[in-house]
Amino acid sequence: MNKDKANMEQKILEAAEKLFMEQGFASTTTAKIAKEAGCNQALVHYYYRTKELLFERIYKEKMQLMVNSITNINTSGSTFEEKVVGVINAHWDFLTKNPLIVWFALRENLNGSTALVNLFIKEIRPKAVDAFSKLEKDLNTEIEKGNISPITIYDLLLTIISLDIAHFVIQPFYQMIVGDGETSVKHILDNRKEEVIKTVLARLKK
């Protein structure tokens, strides 16, 4: 593939990601993607065939990035608490780099989109289950030793995910409160992350 073709393929991918995240799957058309990318509609179909396949590629890549970022820390840290902090940090960093994905996922679910659900069930959930099997073993070992309060891996992960996501859902309100200064919003989010860590670790204490 020559450089021009590679550049156009990437432009289409980036245009589609932007529109999917901002407008949702249903409202995004290949015509809009082509206009955003600065090409004709035929090129979108040439490189990616259908809107569904393009959506699948983008969402799968995003979710795989999140899973990989979290599972890379499973063996780090000398204590279970440090591993939990690593999970929180990795998930938070992913959301910081991909803030639109929270609203995107919420909008798709509220609109009853089956594309997102089917893709998650088929592609993402099996990988996530495998990825967190090691962390679950560590969790159960710590519970058996009496080091932490009983909790299932699902409840632990849902607590982390829900606490993290909440702050990115209401991030626009932070901006309303402190203005347009990115430093101020970042400072608030950094503080909120530390509060999430304290909350989760407090739940694990005996």
Cα shape: globular
How many strand segments? Answer: 0
Provide the structure class. Answer: mainly alpha
Let me know the average pLDDT: 85
Helix share bin: over 70%
Strand percent estimate: under 5%
Order of helices and strands: HHHHHHHHHHH
In quaternary terms, these chains amount to single chain
Taking the sheet with the most strands, its summary is:
none
Q: N-to-C terminal Cα separation, in Å?
A: 59 Å
Rounded to an integer in angstroms, the radius of gyration calculated over CA atoms is 20 Å
H/I helix tally? 11
Write the layout of secondary structure elements.
Layout (H helix, E strand, L loop, with lengths): L2 H21 L6 H8 L3 H8 L2 H21 L8 H18 L2 H11 L3 H18 L1 H13 L7 H17 L1 H8 L3 H23 L2
Q: Could you explain the architecture of this structure?
A:
This protein is mainly alpha-helical and 206 residues long. It is 81% helix and 0% strand. Helix 5 packs antiparallel against helix 11. The mean pLDDT is 85.
Short note summarizing the structure:
This protein is mainly alpha-helical and 206 residues long. The protein has 11 helices and no strands. It is 81% helix and 0% strand.
Structure keywords:
globular, 206 residues, mainly alpha
